[in-house]
Amino acid sequence: MIRALFAALMVLVALPALAQPGSAPTIPQSDLIQPAELANMLKSGPKPTILQVGFKVMYDEAHIPGAVYAGPGSKDEGIVALKDAAGSIDKGQQVILYCGCCPWDHCPNVAAAWRTLRDLGFSNLKVLYIPKNFGADWVEKGYPVVKG
Amino acid sequence: MRANHCTAVLALLLTSTLPVFANPLAPGTQAPAFTRSGFDGRPVSLPRGKLVLLDFWASWCAPCIVELPHLMALQKRYAGKLQIVGVSMDDKQKSAADVVAQYHVSYPIVMGDLALAKSFGGVLGLPEVFLIGTDGKVIRNWRGDFKAGELDAAIAAALKQSR
Questions:
Q1: Staple partner for A73: which of A1, A113, B41, B81, CB 3.0–4.6 Å?
Q2: Mutation for testing the B interface, residue in A1, A2, A3 having most B CBs under 10 Å
Q3: Do the Cβ atoms of B58 and A55 come within 8 Å?
């Protein structure tokens, strides 16, 4: 009992750290793209550059066709990998970031990745709005996936 | 030409609109057995003959961390009748081990991977929790956030049924 209470206390103490400063809900609505809209773009027209900024095991399981794994936005090494990936992309090109590891309000990755590319000068940047997770909001909707 | 044809077929195979493994194992499906090394070095298997709560989680998943004390309390309350097993989907074991140590997680934890995730129907978002009956069959699954009290109610009902 004492251990469980202690753990609960630890969670309360750690929660502010888990809620990233500038989490996903801080991304302006105008910079979001809905799953159905992206799925339509993939069917026809010029394909955007898609970067998955979540966790490797999730990318390996399933990802959007053409998406490049760019490392988790919540980790320093992820931001380094993202900058590496961004180095070869024209800054005016349409770039779409996504994660889908967790419910949107808790996603630790997309906001940091979005800020990084915005600060680098990417002018046509969107973040895929995934309210629940990649499984529920993309794969289960029947949108195209590449499976690991 | 032949190479182009093969490439197109391969692309079709890889890129599917059918969510073949999108859905978690359905209720009534036999949960796949596994044995993996626990964080304490001891082997951890999916228990049989006992109610099991299999919790796919990760150190970066805030809702998963919030649930840890609750899961530990459930494990304590139903000791001997329920076994919770945590499966970390972290890229690195150290990230998960740090959380396990920080929160003094009292039930076994193993590292998950692509194969284990796929055997449960694909873990494409966290938390992902399976309640597995004494017969080894999935009773229920939760993907993403779940409402407070849902786990408790489902566990209590399953234990009542298995009496």
A1: A113
A2: A3
A3: yes
